[in-house]
Input
Amino acid sequence: MLPPTDQQTPTAALLQAPEAQALELAIGDMHLLLEQHGYVIALYPSGIRPEHERRLHSIRSVLESDRIALVKVDLPPLGVAVLVRQLRQLSICDFSPGVVASAARLLSHYIYAGALLNSVAKLDRVPVSLKSHAKSWVPGSQFAVLAGPEPQLIKVGPNAEPLAGPGFRTHLLVAKGQLQSDWVQETLVPAWKVQAVHDTGVLADSPRWWGTGKLVEFAAYLPDISMLYQLVCSVRREKCHWCEMELIGDRCAFCSAPLAAPENRRTSTGVLQLEAGQSSGP
Output
């Protein structure tokens, strides 16, 4: 988890892996969180180990609670950490738990998460061509990989094409691993017109996710809570026809029910069609 950006941003609870905590204790911890806060949004990456994901579903099933949202996102570790902090920022705004939980899908499209790697031989999270695999065995090779919002891979060099960057103002969070390189600072930052660069430590799951510890991981994101607030407000809110939680997008984050048939609800642009700065309000 990343430290808060200000004194108002609340902390988050870290849910332990199955081998680190007995199921009974994990259930007790979740019950305590529900008692203290009313609702729990458990955000986890799609690359989480299957037994860890089963643990989350087991806890919700045992507690028989409709106040626990299990939200899976397809981002690398640093991108997930950024998204968690953004949801923490939004949690103190005047949004309902359902809107905050379903905002994870929206905000993930505005996080440009990637890494500079010395090899893509063991990278299985992003499509890698056979040619790139072969080049990764050449000593001194480096690859810039973008995992989201759209995957991209380039071999770093004088004539390399740039990574597709955000078309809006961002800050860049950088976690330097065992790879010694100034490429992010000297090439990526000016190409993406980053407003500010912040450093952090390499997350424990990053080497496994990227297939190597020789990396520099980065994530560009919307830094201002007012921008996040306006972005979420720009999407039409709906009410889940099953659990009656408020939501944005096309699916409830708490019960996973899709929106009702179009004839039974208002017209909505949906999360995936929203572009930066575009309003989908009435």
Notes: Confidence is low (pLDDT under 50) at residues 264-282. Residues 143 and 267 are 43 Å apart (CA to CA). The radius of gyration is 20 Å.
